[in-house]
Design goal:
Layout (H helix, E strand, L loop, with lengths): L3 H4 L10 E6 L20 E5 L17 H12 L7 E6 L1 H15 L8 E4 L18 H11 L4 H4 L2 H19 L13 E6 L7 H5 L9 E6 L5 H4 L1 H11 L9
Parallel strand pairs: 1-2, 1-3, 3-4, 4-5, 5-6
Organism: Lysobacter hankyongensis
Family: Belongs to the thioesterase family.
Protein name: Alpha/beta fold hydrolase
Length: 252
């Protein structure tokens, strides 16, 4: 059974104050957000989420079913819902963050004061019934090369790819199998970020996130491609600073 520290490797149960939970993109681990933990973001502290199957959880099987992953994460995060919190997710992580917010609401648990969705079209936007996770190995590697999120040295290393491929396929399966179910829009503000040069995500799909909230909605385009959150980290964090600073959103 996974422990608290498995899910939150940079968090202790004694950590208090407002929290920004950060959920990584496909293939990435919590360490992507480690630089975010070095300082306060507005009035919040970053708490990266470690999903199964990566980094220190590499021995675990990656979860390829979104409802099952969200259920496990909602249980793991429960001890940290005693203070105001926001959710940030990039690409796959944005979808996980959105469904986590809805799962917490259905369970009558505290809900986020703000949802930040980055690098992914709105969940209700039809992206086609892809089966990318079932591609032959060579075609799957080419797909990863197009996304440009996996270092070339890893893509060229057969042993490393044999090790990472099951986790990567599971992450793609989360999206491939996802089916949006309509619910009442969230009551928290939603801020969406996109990369100006991201040819994988259309701006109209980013704008469609506005239908998922009854509160304020913002869309901001930043320089860079699909992984602008790494290329433009300081610019992104400066914007988050403003959104999460006093007198920011109150605990819902």
């Amino acid at each position: 059974m996974s422990s608290f520290s498995d899910w939150f490797p940079y968090t202790t149960k004694s950590d208090d104050g407002r929290r920004l939970f950060c959920i990584p993109y496909a293939g990435a681990g919590a360490s992507v957000f480690r630089p975010w933990t070095q300082r306060r973001i507005g009035d919040y502290r970053a708490h990266p989420v470690q999903l199964p199957g990566r980094e220190r959880r590499a021995a675990e099987a990656a979860v390829d079913d979104l409802p099952r992953l969200v259920e496990a994460l909602s249980q793991a995060i429960d001890p940290l819902l005693d203070a105001p919190f926001a959710l940030f997710g990039h690409s796959n992580g944005a979808l996980i963050a959105f469904e986590l917010a809805r799962a917490l609401r259905r369970a009558g648990r505290p809900t986020p004061v703000h949802l930040f969705a980055s690098g992914r079209v709105a969940p209700q936007v039809d992206i086609g019934r892809h089966q990318r996770h079932t591609l032959p190995d060579d075609a799957f590697t080419e797909l990863l090369r197009r996304f440009n999120g996996t270092p070339q040295e890893i893509l060229r290393d057969p042993d490393m790819m044999d090790f990472l491929r099951p986790m990567l396929r599971a992450d793609f399966a989360l999206n491939d199998r996802y089916r949006y179910l309509e619910e009442t829009p969230l009551s928290c503000p939603i801020t969406v970020y996109g990369g100006i040069d991201d040819d994988l995500v259309e701006a109209v799909g980013l704008a469609a996130w506005g239908a998922q909230t009854t509160a304020a909605f913002e869309l901001h385009m930043l320089p860079g491609g699909h992984f602008f959150l790494n290329e433009e980290r300081e610019r992104l964090m400066a914007h988050l600073d403003k959104r999460l600073a006093s007198p920011g959103p109150v605990f819902a």
